[in-house]
Amino acid sequence: MNKVLRETRKDKGWTQEEVARAVGIHRTAYTRIERGERIPGVHIAMKISSVLGKPVEELFGMNPGEKK
């Protein structure tokens, strides 16, 4: 599960449906991304980052040197 993504969305007061609409994807696709069942492409990840106002690296845990 992508806890950072979920918590950021909730902190901003957005629903999954609202984020999905703003990004231009189906809610089910967004839900799968948030659950960690799907990895978004770069374009979608950048849109989600823009909508939620947080760096893509922070939302998706891609910080240099970070171990998963």
**Beta-strand content:** under 5%
- Spatial separation of the terminal alpha carbons: 12 Å
Number of DSSP helical runs: 5
- According to DSSP, the number of beta strands is 0
What sort of overall outline do the alpha carbons produce when their principal axes are compared?
A: globular
Low-confidence stretches are: none
Count of folded domains: 1
- Tell me the CATH architecture: Orthogonal Bundle
> Major beta sheet, specifics?
none
Could you name the CATH homologous superfamily?
A: lambda repressor-like DNA-binding domains
CATH topology: 434 Repressor (Amino-terminal Domain)
What does this structure look like?
The protein has 68 residues and is mostly helical. It has a single domain, classed as lambda repressor-like DNA-binding domains (434 Repressor (Amino-terminal Domain), Orthogonal Bundle), CATH 1.10.260.40. The longest helix is centred in the last third of the chain and has 11 residues, at 42-52. The mean pLDDT is 91. It has helices spanning 3-12, 16-23, 27-35, 42-52, 56-59.
